[in-house]
Predict the structure.
Amino acid sequence: MEQVTYNMLFRWFIGLSMDAPVWDVTVFTKNRDRLLRGEVAGKFFAAVLADPRVKPLLSPEHFSVDGTLIESWASMKSFRPKDGSGAPPGPGRNGERDFHGEKRSNETHASKTDPDARLARKSNGQASKLSYAGHVVMENRHGLAVAATTTRATGTAERDAGKAMMAGLDRAPRSMLGADKDYDTRDFVAAMRGLGVTPHVAQHKNGRRSAIDGRTTRHPGYAVSQRIRKRIEEVFGWGKEIGGMRRTLLRGLERVGWGFTLRVAAYNLIRLPKLLAAPA
C-alpha cells in the first residue's frame, strides 16, 4: 500500500493516474475478503481451461495426481496443547521455548495463530513443520493442471483429495490416472475403479501387498503413465521457486486454498503461450 503512493508501476497495474488519491488500507482488505467469498480463484482457474483455444490441448482420458506440503505462516512456538497446559514462550518479541522431551501431535496440540495448520513432514528423517497440503490433477497430453484443491495436511489428505478431484473432473468415461506409491491403497484403487478410472498407481516394493497387480501393470499404458506422471512435479517446482508457494503468507484453509489455486492457474498461463503458438 505504501508503494502505491509513489511507484508508477504499481499505479499503472491497478489503474490509478499519477494524481489520483490512494484508497485506505481497509478498502484493500475489504476487497480481498470479497474475492475470497466470491471464489474468484477457482472461477479464474476454470475460465482459463474453458477457453476455446485451450480446451483442444487437454487430454480427456490420461491424468496424473500428486500433492505437496505448503508451509504455514505459523511458528512452531504457536503449536500449544489444546487443553491450555504447557509453558508459554519466554518474554520478548521472539521468546525462547524449550520443546525438549515434550511429545507433540495433531491430536493433542494446535497452533494458536493458525488452527487449520497441521504438523507434517514430507518424509522420514525430515523435520516436521506446520503445513497445509496442496493437490493437483494434471492432464498428460501437455502437462496442464486441470484440478487443484487445498486440504489440511492429514495422513490421508492426498488420497482423499485425489478421489474428490477425479469425481468432479470432466473426463472420458474410461480414463487413466497415474500416481506415486502413496496412493497404493485398496480404498483409493477401489474408489478409482468405481469412478470408471483405471488406477496406474506405483506399486509398493517394501513387502506390503500392493493393491495393483499384473492385470494393470502388464499393459504398456501403465509404464507410460508412470513416466509421464513425474511431470506434475513441474507444477509444484514452479509454484515453490517462482510462485511463492513454498510458504504461504495467508492463514486459514480458505485463504491458503485461494492462494494455491491462483498460483496453479498462473502456472497454466505461463505455459499456454508456447503451447498455443506450437503447430498442431
Notes: The CA atoms of residues 49 and 55 lie 6 Å apart. The domain at 40-73+130-277 is CATH 3.30.420.10 (Nucleotidyltransferase; domain 5).
